[in-house]
Amino acid sequence: MTETLATDATVKAIDDDGVAVVRGVIDAAQCDRLIAAVEDLRADPGPHFRTLSPEGAPLVQSDLFRWRDHPEFEALVTKGPLPQLAAAIFGSDAVVLLEDQYFYSAAGSGTPSPWHQDHPYHPLEPWFLTIWIPLDPVPGETGLRTVPKSHQGPTYAPVEFSAGKATLTDDANVLAGVPAIDDDPVAFPVMAPSFAPGDAMLLDSRALHAAGGHCASTFRRLSIRYAAADTRYTARDWPVASFWDDHDVAGQLGQRIAGHAFPVIPT
């Protein structure tokens, strides 16, 4: 589903398919400012910074929770179209800012983001929304791909992304692994839209998605995640993102996550 604005059809696409594409969410000037911001933050890594590519390979890097460290990130995630999009999807006048994440892929890199769901990495219910935005032109077939309606299916085991320091709490798992999506296009029809810088893919956190491939040029993109205002911490029987150990809400079953670390953004 592709729309120019968050319309009723966009909301319906998320409900029906778990995915929608919204064109021109941010303009070229803001993309340029955010590219500069990514480079500023790469030069000053945070505690959740990871190199995802194997040692010696062209770099693929990521960092989380940096919006308080740069005014361009703060403006993006707390004002303007992104929280408004999320509020429209949730049918509310406020959302919780869950996570800001950037990805950087150097020219020549080829480390993929394997098929996964965002939901199992987080000890939260209900589902949340991921807004993925390329800042650079997408180099080749490296844009985000997804399986429409997969948000209606099972939850699969989270996948470790980092080639270095782990991003998951442990190795134990009770969930089935993600199927071989690309080997069965009948069972898993893949949606792979084209993107221009500033376009956005909106994903239900339970939707299967993947990205990656050979990057002919530097490729920077963002994943911004918002949750409904009533989102609560819940127990998981499988590994979750290790950063949850750093938050006060960890272990407080049934507690709303909204607070200093996860601020409520009125729209």
Gyration radius (Cα, Å) is 17 Å
Structural class: alpha+beta
**The level-1 CATH class:** Mainly Beta
Q: Give average pLDDT, whole number.
A: 91
Count of individual beta strands: 14
Second rung of CATH, namely the architecture: Sandwich
Q: What is the count of helical runs?
A: 4
Q: Distance N terminus to C terminus?
A: 24 Å
* Quaternary form: single chain
Shape: globular
Largest sheet: 9 strands, mixed
Proportion of residues in helical segments? 10-25%
| CATH homology-level superfamily | q2cbj1_9rhob like domain
What does this structure look like?
With 267 residues, the chain is an alpha+beta fold. The chain has a single domain (2-247), classed as q2cbj1_9rhob like domain (Jelly Rolls). Helix content is 16%, strand content 23%. It has helices at 8-17, 28-42, 71-78, 81-90, and strands at 2-3, 19-22, 50-51, 60-64, 94-105, 113-116, 124-125, 129-134, 145-146, 200-204, 209-211, 219-227, 232-233, 264-266. The longest helix is centred in the N-terminal third of the chain and has 15 residues, at 28-42. The radius of gyration is 17 Å and the shape is globular.
Task: Quickly describe the structure.
The protein is of the alpha+beta class and 267 residues long. It has helices spanning 8-17, 28-42, 71-78, 81-90, and strands at 2-3, 19-22, 50-51, 60-64, 94-105, 113-116, 124-125, 129-134, 145-146, 200-204, 209-211, 219-227, 232-233, 264-266. It has one domain (2-247): Sandwich (Jelly Rolls), CATH 2.60.120.
